Amino acid sequence: MNIELSSVYKLLKKKYGSQGWWPIVNPDTGKSEYALGVPRNTDDIFEIAIGAILTQNVAWINVEKGIANLKRAGIFSPQSLLKAKEDKIASLITSTGYYNQKAKKIKNFLQWFKTYDFNFQNFSKLKIEEMRRQLLEIKGIGPETADSILLYGLKKKIFVVDAYTKRIFSRLGFFPESYSYEQMQEFFDNNFKGNVSSYNDFHALIVVHGKDICKNDPLCGQCFLNSYCIYCLDHLG
Question: What structural domains and CATH numbers belong to the chain?
Answer without folding.
Answer: 5-18+159-236 (1.10.1670.10), 40-153 (1.10.340.30)
